[in-house]
Amino acid sequence: MPATPPPVEPEALNGQERRQLTVVRRYGTLGALLLAVASLGAGAAPVYNPVTGVPVLGLFARMPTVALACGFAGMAIIVISWLLLGRFARPGRERLMSKSQMDRTLIMWATPLALIPPLFSRDVYSYIAQGKITARGIDPYLLGAAQALGLADPLTRDIPNMWKETPAPYGPLFLQCARWFSEITSDSVVVSVLLHRGLELLGVAMIVWALPRLAKRFGAQPVSALWLGAVNPLVLFHLIAGAHNEALMIGFMMAGLELALRHVPVTRPGEKPDKPPPWQRGELLWLIIGAVVITLGAAVKISAMPALGFLGVIVARRWGATFAHLVKAAAFMIAISATVLVTASLVTGLGFGWTGQLGTPGLVRSWMAPVTGVGMLSGQLGVLLQLGNHTDAAIDVARLIGMALAAAICVRLLWRSFRGRLDPMIGLGLALGVVVALGATVLPWYLLWAVIPLSAAVGDNRFRTVAAGVCAFIALAQPPTGSGFLGHAFVLPQAYLGAAVVVALSLLVVNRTLPIRRRKAAQGDADRLSVRE
Length: 533
Fold this sequence. Notes:
Layout: H1 15-42, H2 64-85, H3 99-110, H4 123-135, H5 145-148, H6 154-158, H7 172-185, H8 189-218, H9 222-229, H10 233-241, H11 246-260, H12 283-298, H13 306-319, H14 323-347, H15 370-384, H16 391-418, H17 424-437, H18 447-455, H19 461-477, H20 491-510, H21 515-532
Helix pairs in contact: 1-2, 1-3, 2-19, 2-20, 4-7, 4-8, 7-8, 8-9, 8-10, 8-11, 9-18, 11-12, 12-14, 13-14, 13-16, 13-17, 15-16, 16-17, 17-18
């Protein structure tokens, strides 16, 4: 097979583009600061809000409309800035921003969101309560916060009503971390939130470390992968500001893949390894380390487990691409994952109760989940036809069909990857996307399960455009409060109007230097020149 010429390295941004980049960065930082201010009055604050009564800081809690307007404006400005930033990271562009420039941009936008009350969700309070339950020696897989801590406990009051009696659905590694945090903080909600956010920032750091390396390995543009996978507004809003443990799960998954493949040559779709190359020194060791790290992600949330399947496919092709090699690689991955999960369950003393709580997120009935929506619609149709209310049964059947269909599609993707017809990293992203789409529950941050792996393998600009549009829409769809408005819906139109005014005025200020303005101006000059000629 003829050697593939190395890709042409893009040039650095010129002076004008660097000035435009500076404006985009500062504009996004403005959005992050507005969102940080909004968290004081329109965030998912605890019931006993520590900023109430504090001069200046406590003012926003008494002005919910103003705080919410700041939140909507900050969200819109961050999304606009991110879309404009994508121009400097578009594959095929002659000049691209560097990885260090992208990293610094992420730091600028993430820093204001790292030290604020939670936004967009109250799940972090469930994490804190489950840590306290575990620290007391109570099995968090048997009792929820209401039974284990009591309804009067401040931590229980911070949890949404539907989750107060729900046992923990997370793996033993995550609950062990929550236990340590509870022992360190002595029920301090503020410190506990910051510790959990620090844990999720560690997960984001692993994503930032692994993404560009995996992108090089799978043929994507590293800076573009960082833009779509790490600087994504969904990461900023939900993994950092919302402190969701998806950050740690995805971080372990991506870092584990990179560690496992450090010395494993990855064949591209259509390539057939004629002869297994000789094993390199340390290859098996790194493969084991990578598989262990991925399994640690599954010990946070089981959703990381499909990554082991696609890693096994890569290994099977490395060993010779026969069915016997596939069976051998599968046995190898199962042995490692089983050893790690059993060890984590026994060492933490939490046992295997987590295996019986994997369906807990399915308690949410949301129209965002297609299979749940079909079940709800079928149940309501039965009521309309006077056949009785069988909504629960209809939802269970629809979810069972969705689960079976998702499993079948994932097996098909694994097989196509093994046969060399599909890039394994693309297969992983598609498989996780199918699991989300056909799962019992769909939440905005679940989209990152698929987007982050796909960003490391797909360099097509059409995919980038579609993925960016979907992520931007979903990022703007959920208010920062993390809860409903309890009859105060009149706040919303006023907040949206105030946010629209703020965003419009800010765009007028930076209009002359924004990249999109420059491009339109340049196109207009070219059109006028052609008319003259």
